[in-house]
Amino acid sequence: MTKSTNEPEANGADLREQAAPAAHGLAPFDPAQLPPDTVHIDLSTREFREGAFERYEELRGKCPVHRAVFTNNSARGDQDGFFNRPVWLVTDYEEGTRALLDRAITVDVASIMTPEQLEQMQAQSGNFQPLRKNLLNVDPPEHTRLRKLVQPSFTASAIEKLRPRIQQLTDELLDAAEAVAAARGEAAPERSMELISQFSYPLPVTVICEMLGIPPEDREQTRAWSEHLLKPQTPETLEELQKNIGQFIEFLRRLFVAKREHPADDLISQLLQVEVEGDRLTEDEIVAMVFILFVAGHITTVNLIANGVFALLTHPEQAERLRQDPSLVPNAVEEILRYYGPAETTTPRFVREEIELGGQRLTKGDPLMVILAAADRDPKRFANPQAFDITRADANRHMAFGKGIHVCLGAPLARLEGQIALETLFRRYPDLRLGAPASEITWEPSFLRGLSGLPLRF
After folding, report:
1. What is the DSSP letter of 367?
2. Which stretches of the chain drop beneath a pLDDT of 70?
3. Handedness of CA 79, 80, 81, 87 (dihedral sign)
4. Radius of gyration of the chain from its Cα atoms, rounded to whole angstroms
5. Which residues, including other chains, have CB under 8 Å from residue 238's CB and lie 6 or more apart?
6. pTM of this prediction?
7. How far apart are CA 368 and CA 107, in angstroms?
8. Domain definitions of the chain by residue range
9. Which class is domain 16-457?
10. Per-residue pLDDT tens for 281-321?
11. How far apart are CA 301 and CA 297, in angstroms?
């Protein structure tokens, strides 16, 4: 979460259900009002997940901006959240860029609400209330203020200092995977490993926990509190999620007390003390910042690493290029971000004033999402965009980390973790290959692009 730690475009930790118009108190929606040309996308079907890129290409060929409705059978007809409500989808690179830069489009749903709607939103926030104002859903000047206070920890130079520790964690996790395989009596090159659970998940989780200063004994619990946050919610699971979020917030407040008494060299201690031009973060702002950084700091990097390995192993000529020339690793990561970016879409935006976009007239209050996965395969921007090519000269022009003021805060960290992970895997295991047919490896039904699992032989 990314789902790019990240101020995720990629990084997907966007509390989509909490950010949905109805969940914020906007008027209930009547499905009968939908125009006949509305595109319906059912995230729960494997057919859509497997054929998403073809569908985006088809939509872009007709018009770069479409009115659509997302559904998900696993959400059991939730009419009051994000699903089953109209949203504008942007599938074109140029129009997507404009949508992310145009000040007529905002991430702050509160800015388009009436006082009555704002009051209803606050009443419905529940345990999400301390998280409501965060980097993902405020615009300047508030966004500028928040980002300025945390940005120094995420500069490229600051992140580069983490390289030795990330390499150490990478090697330790792979050593552990080898030991588990050996205990089963397996030997190279026929050892087996489930990449996500054994490597691509624990690596970024450990990195972000260490950055934030979450004690080792609490890391498994914090993971459990947040693990279902980005999945579609039913009324039953949403109640459980609210409970988990409440417990996570209570834990953070207790941790803040300890960090104030005994500050350490970690991000939470810094956030509790940081002051820029006389400005400091409030406790609720620190809660929201830590929560977003924690979730975004591992989910999307999980996908970046796993998607990258999957892309390389299903394009063996590209994997061989990487083995022969490890200097290609940084560009390979950029091409992975373009080809299988960890977030399928941006977080929801809202039209602040009537605008024309891609030949469509958008009115105040309309929700909008840029399909990053579609923009990054726009043939007007990338030559032969459906091809996976780790030597692509302009791969780094992708939109996987977003654009504009909300560009991913943790992009340098995501890139570094991805580079170290791929370089180490393909260097240590020259016989690395899929442990199941590619046709049996499936994508999760989500606004993130992540695999359900990735079995490997090594």
Report:
1. E
2. 1-32, 73-82, 125-128, 228, 230-235, 276
3. positive
4. 21
5. 17
6. 0.89
7. 10
8. 16-457
9. mainly alpha
10. 899 999 999 998 888 778 889 999 999 999 999 999 999 99
11. 7
